[in-house]
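I hope you will forgive my troubling you with a question about protein structure. I should value your view on which stretches of the chain appear to form regular backbone elements. Here, with my thanks, is the record as I have it:
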Amino acid sequence: QIVLVSGHLDSWDVGQGAMDDGGGAFISWEALSLIKDLGLRPKRTLRLVLWTAEEQGGIGAEQYYQLHKENISNFDIVMESDEGTFKPSGLGFTGNAKARDIVNEIMTLLLPINVTNVYDNADGTDIDYWMRDGVPGASLRDDLSKYFWFHHSQGDTMTVQDPNQMNLCAAVWTVVSYVIADMEEMLPR
């Protein structure tokens, strides 16, 4: 059984892609790194996917889906961060009411950093295939007030990234992915 965390590696044809989507790739990598550094071993596999060709229409995600859809019942949740890594506020979530109740409970663990909201609908080109087939999905929600200042522009460089805000995003990704991977049962569908 798999809990998938992800971001995409490719960027638009200008800028460096630090925000879109280097930040999402980084926090996904960091989540697994933190779990390993803490010596935690969840019941399910945590899988990092760094998508390719998202900007060209999700070609890498479609290929991954085609290769793994026969095992769809083993995918517990698919998580994608692709809306920047600014100050987080919570998760977008797609899943049934019972799964949403569980995710709401998990998010209470993040009260100390004030990131507890669960919004309707996860977003993500790279996880859409899975969610359409009923796999619960989550996407990071953060402060988008500056996102379109840099999105697909020459301004999308490392100077956009705030290490403190990225650490908060990584904390959200770490807690949510680990708790779901370590629950007794998979999220209800």
Summary: The helical segments are 18-37, 59-68, 97-107, 128-132, 147-150, 163-182.
